[in-house]
Amino acid sequence: MRISRSRSVLLAGAVAVTLSATALPAAFAAPSSTAVISEVYGGGGNSGATLTRDFVELANSGSAAYDLSGFSVQYLPGAPSAGSLWQVSALTGSVAPGGRYLVAQAAGTGGTVALPAPDATGTVAMSAASGSIALVSGTTPLTCKTAADCAADTRIVDLVGYGSAVVREGSGPATGATATASVARAASLSDTDDNATDLAAAPPTPVNAAGQTSGGGTDPGDPGNPTEPGTVRVHDIQGTTRVSPLDGKAVTGVPGIVTAVRTSGSKGFWIQDTAPDADPRTGEGVFVFTGSTIPAVAVGDSVLVSGKVDEYYPSATTQSITEITSPRTTVLSSGNPLPAPVVLDAAAVPAAYVPSAGGASIDALPLEPSAYALDLYESLEGTRVQIADTRVTGATTSYDEIWVTVDPEQNPTVRGGTLYSSYTDQNTGRIKVMSLDSTRPFPVGNVGDVLSGTTTGVIDYASFGGYNLQATELGTLTDHHLRREVTRGQKGGELAVATYNVENLDALDEQAKFDTLAEGVAVNLSSPDIVSLEEIQDDNGAVSDGTVGSEATLKRFTDAIVAAGGPRYAWRYVAPQDGQDGGEPGGNIRNVFLFNPLRVSFVDRAGGDATTPVTAVPTRKGVTLSVSPGRIAPASAAWDDSRKPLVGEFRFHGKPVFVIGNHFTSKGGDQPLHGRYQEPSRSSETKRVQQAAEVNTFVKSLLAADKSAQIVTLGDLNDFAFSPTMSALTAGKALKPLITTLPANEQYSYVYEGNSQTLDHILTSPGIRRFDYDVVHINAEFADQASDHDPQIVRIKVDGRR
Fold first, then answer.
1. Cα separation of 756 and 790, whole Å?
2. How far is C-alpha 30 from the geometric centre of its chain's CA atoms?
3. d(CA 167, CA 20)
């Protein structure tokens, strides 16, 4: 079993890597919630062994690197005598989140296959049949020699006893270790505090921190390579659920035709059986993982594959990929015709997305490929498929990925995307396309373009985006000439207020980024009177040296706006306390107001700082702010490690307008739409609801002092118009979300995983009765983008006081 490290953390359904805590028996103090001994093998170099060395493999099931500095793994014989001592192997470095760490031990005289490059090396000659391994915080040898005594040693982070080991977790040791078998945890890394339950015997599969394994490729001379098919077929491996019934078991002579080969990243190849069974649930294709070794097979080869079946979870909350690992491959013939691809189109994909498990795992549910789209894609995992003339719904990314839909009539947007309109109405036709052909440039497409002709490949799965098509034959791109929008300029009596997430802008960024963002303000937004910016960083960006000011960043940005034909903006912000507002470490992210002093004035009231809350001050003429600019309830737990809202008082034609700039906490940590837990948990939503409630309370305090107060609340709220966050923000009809005033097929400002959706919002108070609102599409639908967000603007008449 392998768990990958995440590439990055994204918004709108992004994944954070967490697994169930690994625990020792109750008597052990302070068990680790992350580090675990995942595999132990003492048969290296023994007679009959393939591997030349013993090893211990560690895993990190947490979301952050686990530091091993000063740690050790220690070995004790299974039946220790009075003179037996724990033997120590010191560790260095760390285990990446979701990663592995390989400790090589003594080599024997047998075996022919070396371990992958170890992350640490010891000299312990472990027994193949029986022993105890402890992961220890420290390098001083343990002295305990019974399970009870070791339970009292708080330095022990995890413990595995195998064979007839006296020192073990739970009722008994893990069994079945031999010269050719290790003891290893299951794919889930489940720990019930019982070694006999948690670890099982299987062919050894060492993985190092780089994700490299031993084995892979073709070795016809290996006496273990059969020349006749075994009894297991691919559909037996795939089974009728998402998890193979043969998970963790060895298979021999699985027949298939090589349909695709991957020579970069997680290397390997796909095989497909040419004699499928009659059950639509049982897939006929499977990935053969060769680790760091480039496969020595070619498309069209007829092969027999022997190895170990493994369910690979790209992260803790995703579904798994069924694979054959540590393969031995016999090529029987070459140049064979490939199985005909399954056609994916609107008729083939069900309208329902995924079955519900009440928030639990769907791994064990029987597949229903005719009822649910994710069940269909799972039943086609590893299988050749073909799509044709598919519309692009997510622009080409820097990773050479493009999202298309095979159901063009499903929730189309006005500009060619696919609208994400509710939690219960998922867009089933979306699929991510990647290419296995590194010799051909990947097409650069925008939303609304068409991937014309046929695209053929195999269905794979990844933590980002879920099911995807690994293309062996790629269609051609038809450009539908999507254009960036330009909104109209405001009239003399209209106050134009905009929001724009400028994606971690700081003074060290390239001038091109400043220029493109500036053009968006000056040209596409037609120079609003007020621009509420999100993601302005301090002047040296992600450098953690105590810098909190953004003057140089804002000077470069406003200079670039002038160069693009815009006005000379002034700015206001409240500098955060160093390291207290979340975002990129060292960046000190904050909200900022730009304003055109020739059109609108800012009311400065001293006293606003990172920790002082702004309050509403009733007066005979209405309401004012206690400080301006100020921050809403900065001491509230709702804003812990998060951006605080910026509040400013402006005057337009002599009338007060209150603007609240927001950047709520991200969706990082939410379970993915395509994941193993259905319905997915939106854990980050709790914090956003709290933040929305704080803003709502402040807005109501302004309205209590003046029910006609002109209030514009706007920014990157990181949530949808139909979310509980929006309900909390608008409670009591204090604010009106303007996104809902647009036609349904225009209600979006962000594109994620092929879904057009809204994370950015502008809301207005009841006192604003005449407005003109626009989402200006200049980024999210384009492969070439200065930010991943589209800006929004509202033009209001500030004359509606009652």
1. 11
2. 29
3. 24
Contact 750, 667 (CB under 8 A): no
Q: Please report the sign of the dihedral spanned by the C-alpha atoms of residue 301, residue 306, residue 311, residue 312.
A: negative
Nearest to 15 by CA among 317, 461, 353, 312: 317
**Angstrom distance (rounded) from CA 486 to CA 267:** 46
Q: Is the pLDDT of residue 726 over 50?
A: yes
| CA 672, 678, 684, 688 torsion-angle sign | positive
pLDDT surpasses 90 at 8 = no
- Among 24, 257, 62, 249, which Cα is nearest to 157's? 24
Average pLDDT, the chain: 91
Tokens representing 502?
A: 């400028």
What distance in Å separates the CA atoms of residue 44 and residue 41, rounded to the nearest whole number? 7
Identify whether the C-beta of residue 406 lies closer than 8 Å to the C-beta of residue 320.
Answer: no
How far separated are the first and last CA of the chain, in Å rounded?
67
- State pLDDT tens for residues 664-701: 999 988 999 999 999 999 999 999 999 999 999 999 99
Q: Check: CB of residue 285 under 8 Å from CB of residue 323.
A: no
- Measured between alpha carbons, how far is 593 from 500 in angstroms, rounded to an integer? 10
Q: Are residues 99 and 209 in contact, defined by beta-carbon separation less than 8 angstroms?
A: yes
Sign of CA dihedral 237, 242, 245, 247: positive
pTM reported for the whole predicted model: 0.74
Length of the chain: 802
- 117-120 contacts: CB < 8 A, separation 24 or more? 117/208, 117/210, 117/212, 118/55, 118/208, 119/91, 119/93, 119/208, 119/209, 120/73, 120/89, 120/90, 120/91, 120/92, 120/93
Q: Which residues contact 593 (CB under 8 A, 6 or more apart)?
A: 530, 531, 532, 533, 571, 572, 573, 602, 629, 646, 648, 659, 661
pLDDT > 60? residue 24: no
β-pairing, 430-435 with 466-473?
parallel
Specify which residues 392 forms β-bridges with.
404
What's the rounded Cα separation, in Å, for the pair 38 and 185?
5
Six-digit token string for 199: 């670890």
448 by Cβ neighbours in 10 Å (0-12 / 13-18 / 19+) ranks as buried
- Give pLDDT tens digits for 59-92: 987 778 889 999 999 999 988 887 889 999 999 9
Contact predicate 571/591, CB 8 Å: no
Query: Where does residue 146 rank: exposed (0-12), middle (13-18), buried (19+ CB within 10 A)?
Result: exposed
d(CA 669, CA 665): 11
Contact assessment for residue 532 and residue 713, using Cβ atoms and an 8 Å cutoff: no
| Token pair in block for residue 585 | 């470490």
Backbone angles phi, psi at 450, to 5 degrees: -125, 130
CB-based contact 305:297 (threshold 8 Å):
no
CB 535 within 8 A of CB 505: yes
d(CA 395, CA 783): 5
List b or e across 577-602, with b for residues whose CB sees 16 or more CB atoms inside 10 angstroms. eeebbbbeebbbbbbbbbbbeebbeb
Is the pLDDT at 19 greater than 70? The verdict is no
Question: Which residue in the block uniquely carries the two structure tokens 């497909």?
Answer: 272
Instruction: Give the span between the Cα atoms of 198 and 173, in whole angstroms.
Output: 9
